[in-house]
Specification:
mainly alpha
């Protein structure tokens, strides 16, 4: 249950950063980095 909550929370943060990234390149970069980290986590790396 904890890992599902973490994944939902991370997805929410990625979404917020992505939206902010339309105006702020740093937020866009943070969204990309977090998305990569989540994908690595899901792939077991």
């Amino acid at each position: 249950m904890d890992s599902r909550f973490d994944l939902i929370f991370q997805g929410l943060i990625i979404s917020v950063l992505r939206d902010l990234g339309q105006r702020d390149p740093q937020a866009r970069q943070q969204a990309t980095e977090l998305a990569r980290a989540v994908l690595k986590q899901l792939n077991g790396a």
